[in-house]
Design goal:
By secondary structure, the protein is of the alpha+beta class. Helix content is 30%, strand content 30%.
Amino acid sequence: MEMERINEDTIRVLINNDDLDERGITVLDLLGNRKQIEGFFYSILEEVDSEHQFQKDGAVTFQVLPNKNGLELFISKGEIDQDDSMSSTTIEHNSLNNYDIDNDDAYTKNFVIEFSSFENFISLSKVLRIENGASNLYTYNGKYFLELTFFVNVGGTDIESIKDKVAIANEYGSESSRNSQFLEKNGKRVMDTGALELARYYFK
């Protein structure tokens, strides 16, 4: 693990895959457990902030950039814009409870998108936003699968708009022959309900 002081308010930490292995942690493990990711980042802060300049100043924000060798972690004093930070502010996940679906015409449509790499999913998360729906990320046999659930006839979401979003998803992956039931039974869910939002939040 390498540390570089960018300025008086920011520390850059290079954490390689061996460092993650020593801690028995993977990037996907961190994403699946909010408390674990916060605990991991604060443990890194304790290691690199030997003079306790950051810890004693109160608010600290984290930003992470994943790469093939591990990840880069930027630790900054004070609060920054929520869209650009990795602070412990809660992300509001999409769920059925967030929407008024008391509508006789409302129903759901599900699609599963298969990715050859985690990086392709991350790239998709930066361009695809689902206002009336949910997204779950699974792994199975070394591949990644994104389950997209759309709430049709809710909040202006119609079949045409769903087709547009699925078309965008297919630019980064492909529709899979695996369905939601198969993944729930045989896959490992690594990001729940708001997978696209989580990916945008944690990976810059």
